[in-house]
Every structure is written in structure tokens, then in C-alpha cells.
Amino acid sequence: MGLIPNDWAINTLGNFFIENTKVNSALESKNALKFKFGTIIQKPNDKEREDEDGLDILCRYTLVEPDDIIINGLNLNFDFKTLRVGIVRESGIITSAYIAIRPRLNAIYPDYFNYLLTSLDFQKVFHNMGAGLRQTLKYSELKTLIVLSLPIPEQQRIASFLDRKCKEVDELIELQEKMIEELKAYKQSVINEAVTKGLNSEVQMKDSGVEWIGQIPEHWDVNKVKYLLTKNDGGIWGEEPKNIDTDKIVIRSTEQTIDGYWDIQDPALRDLSACDYKSFLINKGDLLVTKSSGSSSHIGKTTIADDYFVDNECYYSNFIQRLRCNDKCLPYYMWYILNSILSREQFVFFQNSTSGIGNLNSTIINNIFIPKPPISEQEAIINYLNIQTKKINNLLAIKQVKIDTLQEYKKSIIYEYTTGKKEVPEK
After folding, report:
1. DSSP structural state of residue 128
2. 144: how many CB neighbours lie within 10 A of its CB?
3. Which residue range forms the structural domain that includes residue 46?
């Protein structure tokens, strides 16, 4: 907490809150609630949701009321981005896996304490609590948490001020996020235009005969992907690593970003057999396609292997399909094509669905239709898109920095005002 105003004091959470353990055993409510980025919102109120949860599960949920505060004390050893503190705004039920606390009568102003606990969450205070293999926090420990004690009118002033300021910041963040989505859509349109129409706006066009592609330059062909490949095969996961020099890096689909880039921060090491080395080794220019996902945004996302994969002798997992181009198609042209709207729509349309998970296989990928210009035009399109997408990516990075700065500002003002470092200005 650091320094606090002279007329404030410290106390423990248990002096202000009691644990709410009232269970929905009589099915008093079906208004199921859930966490979403630090807020408590309704789950979709439809038959599908009710069937998914099941009445027997709803009967085990906790009954909550407005001003209850919910803390997600699960898996504290994992650094989730989802905020762990939220205040209830409507009567309903929420999973009893969370801690629900209720203000003691007239003891506090709940919104202030929601902000204070949120600030502690930002500082990872809860991550130093909890026990067990999955580091789970229970109320018996939470109630000993040190919090601040200050007059209720002061709590109200701070909460009202933060409501206004946080709303302003959230609106600015939302504006930047909207710009990011517009830039991403623009980037997709630039790619799609180049790989389907080429770079010469005056060239004669013809009907491609494929709905997803539309018209293409008259001298281009339309091919199924299989005619442009020398390899199309799934990967290997291998055995548990032996923690010796023979363990190999196996690339997972989670390390691929939606827009076709790599984000490898913690490479997976696996024990592979000698015969796997040749079959599943990644070569520079290989295309790696995510073939299983519950999200239409992730199914079919494609990355291209660069020098990192050669230098580190990488292999690919069984959730990835490896494609290798023949001499009719340049790898980077195929990379742009497979991450374009026309290919992603085909992936989503033709995927096999199992329990909500979309699946691709070699046959589906083989039969995707793509336009194929001459090699010289493929090279020109690659160079053009490299320049254009770099410009857009730079703008996206600037927008993301603005969002990160705004989020840090929001964290700082919540901390400074809830702990008395700054005083709420007079109106």
C-alpha cells in the first residue's frame, strides 16, 4: 500500500466482507453469470447455453446479488490476462469455483473496494497467495488480506471519480481497438486484391469459375493446392523429453499468430525417434497450417519457416500440416494466399467439425482453389505485399502501444486514488 493519508487506517478484508456460500440448490435462478475482462456479465440466455451447463450444474452455482464481489482464485500460478476481480450488478448465479464475498451491512461502499481489489490484482498480489499444485486461493486466506479503512463518503468520492476517469480511458481504448480492426480488414483487402487481381489494373479479366475467387487476370490459372505441392503431411508429437541434447524443438499451433507470424517464447522440447528426424524436419520455406481449432479465426492460419527453424533444427506437431511448394509456386506467394480471405473462407466452409472443434486434413487442404499467376508476377506480388503489409503492421504496432499506454495509465490512476496517493479534485 505504501504511504496512506493520516486519517486512513489498515484493516483486513474479513472485517468488511463475509463469504457468500449460498448455493442455488433449489434452482432459484437460471441467470448464469461469467467473468469477462474484469466485469461480471450474463452468459448467453438461450437453450443451447442451458443444455451446455445442465440443470445439475446450475444447482451447484452460487447465488449472487448486486454489490457482491467475485474473485477468481483459480490457477494463480498461471499468469492469465483475464482480470480476476469483478463486481456483480444483477442477481444471478456464478460458478462456485470462484470466491464470492458480500459486504457487511453499512461497513463499506462496494464499488470502492472493487477498485481497490482490482488494483491489488494489477500488482499480482493474489498471485502470492493460494496453495496446492494449481495454487488455488480460498476465502480462509483471502479474509486475512490487508486492505484500507477510510470514511464511506471518501470511498464514494473515489469510486465516482474512477468511474468517470476509467470510462474515458475505456472509450479511448475502444477507439484504438476499432482502428486496429479497420487496419486488419484493410490489410486483408490489400492482400486479397493482389493475389486475385494482380498489380496491373488495366489487364483483361476473366471469370475464374470459383465463387471464392471471382474474376482473375486472363492469363492466370486457377489450381487446386495439391498441384502446387511436393509435400502435404501431418506432424509428430513424440515422447516426453529426456532433458538431454537429443531432445528436439517441436512447433505447436499455439505459437502461430492469426495473421501468419511466429510467436515462439517457450519452445516445446520432445523426444523423437531417429526415423522421425528426416520425415518431420522443417525446411526453410515450408508452410505450416493449423489444422485443428475451435475458432474460425485460427483454423487454417499459416506460417512460413525462416532461418530460425533451420538453425534450431525444428520439427512440427501433429496439430499442424506441413506443405512444401513445387517449382510452380513460390512459398511466400502461397503464404499470402493461404492467409487471405479467399483461402480462409474455404477452410472454414470445408472443415470437419467434431464437438465444436474444426478440423482440416490433407484432402481438404489439397482441394482448396487458388489463383496462380506466372512466377515473375508471383515475385512482384510478394515484393509489393511485403512493402504494403509492413506499413500496415507498423501502424498496428503504434495503435497497440497506445492501448498499452492507456491500460497502464488506467492501472496507475486506480492505484493512486484507491490508496490515497492522490486526492480526488474538488468539483
Report:
1. G
2. 11
3. 11-150
Q: Are residues 277 and 137 in the same domain?
A: no
Chain segment 212-230, per-residue pLDDT in tens: 899 999 999 999 999 999 9
Domain boundary among 372, 405, 420: 372
168 domain residue, yes or no: no
Q: Quick one: 232 and 145 in the same domain? A: no
Q: What is the pLDDT of residue 38?
A: 87
- Residue 305 belongs to domain with CATH number: 3.90.220.20
Domain end position, chosen among 323, 356, 372: 372
Q: How much is the pLDDT for 77?
A: 77
Angstrom distances, CA of residue 72 to CA of 86, 284, 341: 9, 44, 38
**Whole-angstrom distance, CA of residue 142 vs CA of residue 73:** 9
CA distances from 279 to 123, 232, 234 (A): 47, 12, 10
pLDDT of residue 53: 58
Count of domains observed in the chain: 2
Residue 403 is assigned to a structural domain of this protein:
no
Per-residue CA distances from 354 to 268, 358, 359 (Å): 26, 6, 8
Q: Is the dihedral of CA 200, 205, 208, 211 positive or negative?
A: positive
Domain co-membership, 138 together with 259: no
**223 beta partners:** 370
- Amino acid letter, residue 337: I
Pairing status of strand 62-64 against strand 92-94 = antiparallel
What is the model's pLDDT at position 54?
67
Per the prediction, the chain carries an average pLDDT of: 92
Question: What is the pairing mode between strands 314-316 and 248-251?
Answer: parallel
Q: Give me the helices (H) in 301-374, please.
A: 307-311, 331-338, 341-350, 362-366
Weakly modelled stretches of the chain, pLDDT under 50: 48
Beta-strand (E) ranges in 157-214? 205-207
Q: Which of 102, 18, 16, 91 is nearest to 61 (CA)?
A: 91
Cell of 253: 499451433
Kindly state whether residue 18 falls inside one of the protein's structural domains.
yes
Q: What gap in Å lies between CA 343 and CA 301, rounded to an integer?
A: 10
